[in-house]
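[step 3/7] fold_predict: job queued, chain A
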Amino acid sequence: MNTTINIRSKEAFNFQKFHEFLDIPDMVLDHHFAIPTESTNWLFHREGKSTTLFALSYNLQDIYTISIDNLAAYEDLKFFPYLVDSLVKYLKGEMDFDNIYNRMNEDWIEETIAEEIARVKGTLTVVPCYFFSQAFNDFCYVSEKALYPFGVNLHSSTPRIYGYIQYMIKKDLLPRFNDWNELPLNNLDDEVEVDIPQHVAIGRVKSWQLDGSETYETYSQEDVDHLLTLASEYKQGKPLHGVVMNDIGTLYQEGIGIPINGENAIYWFTEAYKAGDTLYAPTNLGDLYRKGCGHVKPCLRKAFEAYQLSIDPYAHYRLGQAYEEGWIGKVDRKQAMKWYQQAAEEGHHLAIKRLKKNT
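[step 4/7] structure written:
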């Protein structure tokens, strides 16, 4: 499903001129086509940020319609009000409301994602696939089968489902149909009542964003059972994505649905890193050694070694702390400032604060 905004304007739209007006270098036009006597259409995205397309349509009656897929990347949902506001100014047009930023704020983003994931859940209880309205690839869809290898099911939380859908889009892992006739939708009524599977959390993991805001990842019993099944299948030789192994490690680290077990957490974080997770797993491994876990005692040297493996700005901040506090021996203030500077340039709030103290 899409979010759409109508803009009334008699001005002509030119993508290249609008691109220059926006001054956003990563904006790319994908398609420009006209349907005679009906509309002119532009599809575009932001390189390296978008996971779906923006769509702009002019209906030949002085109405422009700009839309975004409700399963778009979080960055694009946040960017959308600026895009709309800029388009209104470029077209010298009018909307049905005054302040787009008040209408489409952080609460709107959260509600939009929640409603769309509820729609995904409801759809998948009736049919085997949920299609993107503005996907990069035609016939791209979400299914329970596609979600299964990531330890995600219809009882998972909204952030877990949304996050893994975004991951699959970025990695081009979502399935797609090549022929609409293959779709098993022929016997469906127009309206179907469904019970949307509910997420019941049995544990949560706290984390911090780059700006310092707190977020929580919650797990249901269905999540735990699902992830442990994938863990068992992996040990029997079945492939598993590194990010999923990291989730399994998290269950053991935090004791979600199972007893805390530091040794098992270390195993899964290490396997996750070997499988290509250079963001979450080594960072979590570093935190485990820094704080200790179960029978595993804190070890700052091992924490330092784990953080060195990570591309996470938070891990880079911890490396600065390690040098400043002498985790591996002598204090090295020059190296500490180097890592703080790198983490600050990557936007980490703690590194930015630490550098300010030094000035």
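[step 5/7] annotate
The longest helix spans residues 106-124.
The chain is about 45% helix and 15% strand.
exit 0
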